[in-house]
Design goal:
heterodimer, A: mainly beta, 7-stranded mixed beta sheet, 3-stranded antiparallel beta sheet, about 55% strand, globular, B: mainly beta, about 50% strand
Chain lengths: ~110, ~120
């Protein structure tokens, strides 16, 4: 079973700064099977990035994903107060199952 | 507009059963794989189960295997999660989500509380 480890656990930045969130897989995964989600307080998750680097419908270009193998990154440029959320990476593969990272909490100072 | 609406959550005693439903609209339900994902209070997302488009294939997380059954009725555009032998560790918000790969649409979730 693949384990996804996200870092840091919490990130506190100021508006306008750039956030870099990491997702490390316990073994190499296909980039096509890696996604990122945003979950704001009290809301359902929202897909941001699929295939490691493709933005989902309606996602602003401030959000970008990159990486391959075991190391993947979500970048959020020009942070806005509305970006306060927990961000999760996910490995979606049919076997043995789908896996989420433990999440990174983004705070805006 | 794609909509997924979960229902059926509530309070149940340990060892009890509950059936969740997820009603879909705004898309051809029978064309898509569907998932259940749960989130315990204050915790992260945990994938629970996937059913393929015609309901012939299901997979489960080890934590629910043998206790939960994921099924669908494509004529009613509805996804189900039958949960048996519930324990306090199953307390969570349960989300249904659509996706062959990444989950591009999610419902708002239904809360299941297992407590005596």
């Amino acid at each position: 079973e693949i384990v996804l480890t996200q870092s840091p656990g919490t990130l506190s930045l100021s508006p306008g700064e750039r956030a870099t969130l990491s997702c490390r897989a316990s073994q190499s995964v296909s980039s096509s099977d890696l996604g990122w989600y945003q979950q704001k307080p009290g809301q359902a998750p929202r897909l941001l990035i699929y295939g490691a680097s493709s933005r989902a419908t309606g996602i602003p270009d401030r959000f970008s994903g990159s990486g391959s193998g075991t190391d993947f990154t979500l970048n959020i440029s020009r942070l806005e107060p509305e970006d306060v959320a927990v961000y999760y990476c996910q490995h979606y593969v049919n076997s043995p199952g789908y896996t989420f990272g433990q999440g990174t909490k983004l705070e805006i100072k | 507009e794609v909509q997924l609406v979960e229902s059926g959550g509530g309070l149940v005693q340990p060892g009890g059963s509950l059936r969740l439903s997820c009603t879909a609209s705004g898309f051809t339900f029978s064309n898509y794989w569907m998932h259940w994902v749960r989130q315990a209070p204050g915790k992260g997302l945990v994938w629970v189960s996937r059913v393929n488009s015609d309901g012939s294939s299901t997979i489960y997380a080890d934590s629910v295997k043998g206790r939960f059954t994921n099924s669908r009725d494509n004529a009613k555009n509805t996804l189900y999660l039958q949960m048996n032998s519930l324990s306090v560790e199953d307390t969570a918000v349960y989300y249904c989500a659509r996706g062959m790969g990444a989950n591009e649409y999610w419902g708002q979730g239904t809360l299941v509380t297992v407590s005596s």
